[in-house]
């Protein structure tokens, strides 16, 4: 990076930090090659320039929620009508990412998975520091090491558990996008001016610092690096990202507009801000994506004080519900009008190894979901697992007939209204739903506390976003005393009912995973946290924020030990 240079840590076993920066995570020489003095100075510069704006944006989120709690409904902002109605377009799509028909996602660590994803045959790999990654210090830092090596083309892995099989990059690999954490999450192992760093600026800053030059020379064909931006609620948050990108480009001495980012529209307030978000990022945009799982979570959170908008069982809230269909259709129209990609989302099914018929049924659900997306106008979509890529490619490529995307397709003219976007989903609420939420929520939390951010549970992918639905749905039903169906008998959701369900489901989980694994894992702790979160008088904003303190392990400077 012009004007900056890498330095070797001055002392063994201690990070060499610039003024005002303190690293409280475990020392590791591999991490020290990421946490160089200059890289940390770059991150600290971002933090110092943008922390005030981030604090303000988080306060505005809370203020908006107070208005929704008082009965207001989310809606389009009359003061930005000129942006929605104006005739403008985002910067042209970089040729390197014109074709994004299938994108695989996965955590930035383990290393083997990163290599598998890049070799998977997908057009893009989104390496995740967010929903799919438990933000332990080790995961985050190993993720940074993996991405640096992936962009350099040197990443490899020897799998001792597989007889020493060596993993390396193929000749052709997926293009890399990186998803930093959301604005709300701190990074407690990096202190800047005495306070925890903003997590996403650490993720973005370290990756950008080490990889921008190699990325632009190799993967991006002159553009990049590329990012996915999660969980935003308002265009003012996109404006901060735009400022971060401009500062990064300036410091690195690269052309303005090199960095591109796809924003996940995965909160209910953001669906009313899509034009505004694209407008803020118009020189840095790589479109929008339907983050359907967080979107459902956000619907519950936004309407937490609205008893007339209770969700049915989680399994019934799919893309066929009117509010979900309306959201994806509006996203497609908005993106195409602004000349950028409209990306689809994640089907939760994953391959089922030991049951061919069940596996085929799961694949058929994925095909159906992808067919709906491509017919609606999406330009590409997500795959959770390499085993799904051939089927998804077939659906998208079959429909697109050789074109890399359908940004040029004519848009339907019927209007999508505010009411369409918030229409309550329909379906039954059951005690079985409460049980499943509990069983899944507790197991996910146990895995997350143990360092795994995405796990297979009952043949579905579970990550932070899907687990959030389980938590907030239980909370919502209890909060409003929802009447649940218990095999034909109506029962009210109460803390007593939940306590019984938790006890029974914990016993079931123990039987399923076995006593030894149950003892070794953090199931009991997860059960306690989950029940507390479901009965809390005020809904916690994020389970990952509430429980984050449990994975923070501070180390005195220079003291090596294990996390
Ligand atoms: C709501 C959202 O934000 S969605 C986006 C965030 N979520 C994700 O990214 C989830 C990504 N997917 C995953 O993490 C995993 O696929 C899981 C946890 C769902 C399932 O994992 P597992 O059961 O361990 O997968 P499985 O045992 O079938 O893996 C088989 C092989 O595929 C590889 N694999 C599985 N998923 C992925 C992936 N997403 N990327 C790359 N490789 C993968 C494994 O590394 C393994 O490779 P190997 O044969 O060389 O050892
Ligand atoms: O990030 C994706 C989602 O569905 O949430
Ligand atoms: Mg999400």
TrEMBL record:
Domain Malate synthase N-terminal, chain residue ranges per copy: 19-81
GO molecular function terms noted in the UniProt entry: malate synthase activity
GO biological process: glyoxylate cycle; tricarboxylic acid cycle
Superkingdom of the source species: Eukaryota
Catalytic activity: glyoxylate + acetyl-CoA + H2O = (S)-malate + CoA + H(+)
Pathway: Carbohydrate metabolism; glyoxylate cycle; (S)-malate from isocitrate: step 2/2
Keyword ATP-binding: no
GO cellular component: cytoplasm; glyoxysome
EC number: 2.3.3.9
Enzyme class: transferase
Keywords: Glyoxylate bypass, Glyoxysome, Peroxisome, Transferase, Tricarboxylic acid cycle
Protein name: Malate synthase
Originating species: Hordeum vulgare subsp. vulgare
Lineage: Eukaryota, Viridiplantae, Streptophyta, Embryophyta, Tracheophyta
């Amino acid at each position: 990076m012009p004007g900056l240079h890498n330095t070797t840590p001055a002392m063994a076993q201690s990070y060499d930090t610039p003024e005002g920066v303190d690293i409280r995570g475990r020392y590791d020489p591999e991490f020290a090659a990421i946490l160089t003095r200059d890289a940390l100075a770059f991150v600290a510069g971002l933090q110092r320039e943008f922390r005030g704006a981030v604090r303000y944006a988080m306060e505005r989120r809370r203020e908006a929620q107070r208005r929704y709690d008082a009965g207001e409904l989310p809606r389009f902002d009359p003061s930005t009508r000129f942006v929605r109605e104006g005739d403008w377009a985002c910067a042209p799509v970089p040729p390197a990412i014109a074709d994004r028909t299938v994108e695989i996602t996965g955590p930035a660590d383990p290393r083997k998975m990163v290599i598998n994803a890049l070799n998977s045959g997908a057009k893009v790999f989104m390496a995740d520091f967010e929903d799919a990654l438990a933000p332990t210090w080790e995961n985050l830092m190993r993720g940074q090491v993996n991405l640096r090596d992936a962009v350099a083309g040197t990443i490899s892995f020897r799998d001792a558990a597989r007889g020493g099989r060596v993993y390396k990059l193929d000749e052709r690999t997926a293009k890399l996008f990186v998803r930093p954490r959301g604005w709300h999450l701190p990074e407690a192992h990096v202190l800047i001016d005495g306070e925890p760093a903003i997590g996403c600026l650490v993720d973005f800053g370290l990756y950008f610092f080490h990889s921008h030059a190699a990325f632009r020379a190799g993967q991006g064909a002159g553009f990049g690096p590329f990012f996915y931006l999660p969980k935003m609620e308002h265009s003012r948050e996109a404006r901060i990202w735009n400022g971060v990108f401009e500062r990064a480009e300036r410091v690195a001495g690269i052309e303005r507009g090199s960095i591109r980012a796809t924003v996940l529209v995965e909160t209910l307030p953001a669906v009313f801000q899509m034009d505004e978000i694209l407008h803020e990022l118009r020189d840095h945009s790589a479109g929008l994506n339907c983050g359907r799982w967080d979107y459902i979570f956000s619907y519950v959170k936004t309407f937490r004080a609205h008893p007339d908008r209770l969700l049915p069982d989680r399994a019934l809230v799919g893309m066929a519900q009117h509010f979900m269909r309306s959201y994806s259709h509006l996203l497609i129209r908005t993106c195409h009008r602004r000349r950028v990609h409209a990306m689809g989302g994640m089907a939760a099914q994953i391959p089922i190894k030991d049951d061919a018929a069940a596996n085929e049924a799961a694949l058929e659900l994925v095909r159906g979901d992808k067919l709906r997306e491509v017919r609606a106008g999406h330009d590409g979509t997500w795959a959770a697992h390499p085993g799904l890529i051939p089927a998804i490619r077939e659906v998208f490529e079959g429909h697109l007939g050789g074109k890399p995307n359908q940004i040029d397709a004519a848009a339907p003219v019927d209007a999508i209204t505010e009411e369409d976007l918030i229409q309550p989903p329909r379906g039954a609420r059951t005690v079985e739903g409460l049980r499943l939420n509990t069983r899944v929520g507790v197991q996910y939390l146990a895995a997350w506390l143990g360092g795994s951010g995405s796990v297979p549970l009952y043949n579905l992918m579970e990550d932070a976003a899907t687990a959030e639905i389980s938590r907030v749905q239980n909370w919502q039903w209890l909060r409003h005393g929802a009447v649940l169906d218990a095999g034909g008998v109506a029962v009210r959701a109460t803390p007593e009912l939940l306590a019984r369900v938790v006890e029974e489901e914990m016993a079931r989980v123990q039987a399923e995973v076995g006593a030894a694994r149950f003892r070794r894992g953090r199931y009991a702790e997860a059960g306690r946290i989950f029940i507390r979160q479901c009965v809390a008088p005020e809904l916690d904003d994020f389970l990952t924020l509430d429980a984050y303190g449990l994975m923070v392990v501070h180390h005195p400077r220079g003291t090596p030990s294990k996390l």
